[in-house]
């Protein structure tokens, strides 16, 4: 019996504002700040306080909603979502539900089967909760510590329709959405710091059926890997139950990364369980048409648009374009390098350097493109030196690594290391002659038919030049002198 997965994703993104959603408390880094150091009566939920909406958070939410082609609500309402958690001091969360900021959007993703449209049900604003730290003493005593620094941080929740039917589709959708959040400047997207978190609704149905099965919700998945593993586990678990003739319970699940399995947290709530009602302390949120048009006009070029333009203007392959457009800053760096090269270097060569050597450095070092010590102009200059054979390709890559580490210019590194490429025929002829004279035994083997030694001779001669010899000139001279020995 074949089953089809039906998956909807709820994405919570922390918005990049300076202050919290409903008060003036600053947003602080959880790792470096003292617990409960950015808390006021409003985010602590003390009686008699009045929340005030953060206009900056609304603007960031509108940017994302517009990027997702949503219908923006002229008037939206905040509501109280009632449930108790120790890290939710008010006993309710200020959120949006029935009248959200935006609805009915779409996000196109590229799958192995072609373009797929994932419908966006709604985009709404809310506040984050605090953070609990559970402690177990050696004595066996258990207790929890609460930090309210995160309570009240602006969140944007993006809810998809159940349009996803595989782990791969879900991963592509989640990554595309995170890229849009970063392009729009709405969220850092830093998943290690919890800036983006996923909740997956998963159910199974018979392949070909249009009837939805019983769904479960997997909460607080804070990485792509966790999301994929949790969904995969849940698909397998539900398949086994259905094949045994058992029912799937509608419930809220947690995910244990250590054990690699989901676990039950509580029965799944419906909207009425939260007793939503309009927040009495906040007036309706009205988005004026002029303001909305201004935000729309200031939207940057979005990832999909950028990919298509880079392919059209520069003739780059899809795989290279996807790397270059993964981050807005990286795409800008590429185009700045192209302009700095002033047509002296093929655009594809620039793209290959950035998607190859530079991208490898970013992955290895953990730095962002904004943090590296090589400007687009400096990189263009290095590539140009390689193109005119002032230095060879291998040396150029070595020089780039030193530039990234030290911030020095290519010229300084080349001059200090004597790395200029040697193309002089007489000098290279001497290098080859010395190499052959010093390896008489290998010459005999070569002349006896072991022609694979050619590359070994080439490597020895290149090493003797400290990598500075022009590879093409060196290869041609080596071929000439070895041929002469055969006569």
Helix content: 25-40%
Category from helices, strands and their pairing: alpha+beta
Distance between the termini: 75 Å
- If strands are numbered along the chain, what order do they take across the biggest sheet? 2-6-7-10-1-11-12-13-14
**Poorly predicted tracts of residues:** none
For the sheet with most strands, the description reads: 9 strands, mixed
Mean pLDDT, rounded to whole units?
91
Features:
487 residues; Arc Repressor Mutant, subunit A; 21% strand; elongated
Mind explaining what this structure looks like?
- The protein is α+β, with helices and mostly antiparallel strands and 487 residues long.
- It is 40% helix and 21% strand.
- The protein contains 15 helices and 16 strands.
- The strands form 4 sheets. It has a 9-stranded mixed sheet with strand order 2-6-7-10-1-11-12-13-14.
- Strand 6 and strand 7 form a beta hairpin.
- The longest helix has 20 residues.
- The chain starts with a strand and ends with a helix.
Summarize the structure.
With 487 residues, this protein is of the alpha+beta class. The protein has helices spanning 55-67, 167-183, 224-243, 289-297, 303-314, 318-324, 328-341, 347-365, 376-387, 393-406, 410-417, 425-437, 440-447, 453-464, 471-486; strands at residues 3-14, 71-72, 75-76, 79-82, 92-95, 102-111, 114-127, 131-136, 142-147, 154-160, 196-206, 216-221, 251-256, 261-267, 277-278, 285-286. It has 15 helices and 16 strands.
What is the strand and helix layout of this fold?
Elements: E1 3-14, H1 55-67, E2 71-72, E3 75-76, E4 79-82, E5 92-95, E6 102-111, E7 114-127, E8 131-136, E9 142-147, E10 154-160, H2 167-183, E11 196-206, E12 216-221, H3 224-243, E13 251-256, E14 261-267, E15 277-278, E16 285-286, H4 289-297, H5 303-314, H6 318-324, H7 328-341, H8 347-365, H9 376-387, H10 393-406, H11 410-417, H12 425-437, H13 440-447, H14 453-464, H15 471-486
Parallel strand pairs: 12-13
Antiparallel strand pairs: 1-10, 1-11, 2-6, 3-16, 4-5, 4-15, 6-7, 7-10, 8-9, 11-12, 13-14
Helix pairs in contact: 2-3, 5-6, 7-9, 9-10, 12-14, 12-15, 14-15
């Amino acid at each position: 019996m074949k089953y089809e997965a039906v998956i909807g994703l709820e994405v919570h993104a922390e918005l990049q504002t300076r202050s919290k959603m409903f008060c003036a408390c600053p947003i602080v880094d959880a790792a470096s700040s003292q617990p409960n150091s950015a808390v006021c009566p409003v985010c602590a939920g003390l009686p008699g306080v009045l929340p005030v909406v953060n206009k900056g958070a609304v603007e960031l939410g509108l940017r994302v909603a517009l990027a997702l082609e949503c219908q923006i609500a002229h008037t939206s309402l905040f509501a109280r979502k009632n449930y108790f958690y120790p890290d939710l001091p008010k006993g309710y969360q200020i959120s949006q539900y029935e009248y959200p900021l935006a609805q009915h959007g779409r996000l196109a993703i590229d799958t192995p089967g072609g373009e797929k449209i994932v419908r966006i049900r709604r985009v709404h604003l809310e506040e984050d909760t605090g953070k609990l730290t559970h402690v177990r003493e050696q004595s066996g005593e258990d207790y929890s510590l609460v930090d309210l620094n995160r309570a009240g941080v602006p969140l944007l929740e993006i809810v998809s329709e159940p349009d996803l039917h595989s782990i791969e589709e879900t991963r592509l959708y989640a990554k595309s959405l995170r890229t849009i959040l970063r392009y729009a400047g709405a969220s850092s997207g830093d998943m290690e710091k919890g800036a983006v978190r996923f909740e997956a609704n998963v159910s199974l149905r018979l392949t070909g059926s249009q009837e939805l099965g019983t769904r479960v919700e997997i909460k607080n998945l804070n990485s792509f890997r966790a999301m994929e593993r949790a969904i995969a586990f849940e698909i397998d678990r539900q398949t086994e139950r259905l094949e045994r003739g058992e029912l799937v319970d509608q419930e809220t699940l947690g995910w244990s990364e250590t054990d690699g399995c989901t676990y039950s947290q509580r029965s799944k709530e419906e909207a009425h369980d939260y007793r939503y009602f309009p927040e009495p302390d906040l007036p309706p949120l009205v988005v004026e048409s002029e303001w909305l048009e201004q935000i729309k006009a200031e939207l940057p070029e979005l990832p999909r648009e950028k990919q298509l333009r880079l392919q059209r203007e520069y003739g780059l392959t899809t795989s290279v374009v996807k790397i270059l457009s993964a981050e807005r800053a990286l795409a800008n760096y590429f185009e700045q390098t192209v302009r700095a090269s002033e047509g002296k270097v093929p655009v594809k060569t620039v793209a290959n350097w950035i998607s190859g050597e530079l991208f490898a450095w970013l992955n290895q070092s953990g730095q962002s493109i904004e943090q590296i010590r090589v400007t687009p102009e400096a990189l263009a200059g290095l590539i140009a030196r390689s193109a005119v054979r002032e230095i060879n390709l291998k040396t150029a890559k070595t020089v780039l690594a030193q530039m990234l580490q030290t911030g020095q210019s290519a010229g300084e590194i080349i001059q200090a290391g004597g790395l200029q490429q040697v193309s002089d025929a007489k000098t290279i002829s001497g290098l080859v002659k010395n190499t052959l004279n010093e390896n008489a035994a290998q010459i005999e083997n070569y002349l006896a038919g072991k022609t694979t030694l050619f590359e070994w001779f080439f490597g020895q001669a290149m090493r003797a030049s400290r990598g500075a010899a022009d590879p093409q000139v060196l290869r041609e001279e080596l071929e000439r002198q070895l041929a002469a020995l055969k006569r």
